[in-house]
Design goal:
Layout lengths: L4 H15 L1 E11 L3 H9 L4 H4 L3 E6 L6 E9 L2 E13 L3 E8 L3 E12 L2 E12 L8 H21 L1
Antiparallel strand pairs: 1-7, 2-3, 3-4, 4-5, 5-6, 6-7
Length: 160
């Protein structure tokens, strides 16, 4: 079967992507509240400065197809400004956003809320690809996401 030009480009992109670096970070926490309550806190971007130790929203909203700009605290004394495209929103369940510079470093960030017997399991998962990933230590942002998960839990508990 002949390869069409689009399929060929796709295969080339996948091959190049495989040569680029790949890393991921994940943080999970159980919050003793329903997903709807956790969702309200997570999607209230205006309140982030009051509780979120990692992200400060500079502009935008969680709206599928929209963009959000953040000041991200990557480590104690290190921050960066990033822009993310909001790829998918499933109310009370999922927020997926991505950004970066293809080939250099890109991210695919997902918040997943899963109802469990104890309340809501929140999973913060982020994948990185790109040439820079080979030289980048993801352990600092992994630690920040653990702090973010704990801060989310604390904020939800304070409000209930």
């Amino acid at each position: 079967m002949p390869i069409t030009p689009i399929a060929g480009l796709f295969e080339i992109a996948l091959s190049v992507s495989a040569l680029l670096g790949h890393k991921s970070v994940k943080a999970e926490i159980i919050i003793s509240s329903e997903p709807e309550v956790v969702w309200q806190v997570l999607t209230d971007l205006e309140s982030y400065p009051q509780w979120n130790p990692v992200f400060v929203v500079l502009d935008g909203e969680f709206k599928q197809g929209g963009k959000v700009s953040y000041q991200v605290t990557e480590a104690e004394n290190k921050s960066a400004t990033i822009s993310a495209s909001v790829n998918k929103i499933v109310p009370n369940k999922l927020i997926n956003q991505s950004g970066g510079l293809w080939g250099v470093i890109t991210f695919d960030h997902t918040y997943t809320l899963t109802e469990v017997e104890q309340g809501t399991k929140v999973t913060i998962y982020e994948e990185y690809t790109g040439a820079y990933v080979h030289f980048w230590d993801e352990s600092q942002i992994a630690e920040q996401y653990k702090k973010l998960a704990q801060a989310l839990k604390t904020r939800v508990n304070e409000l209930n």
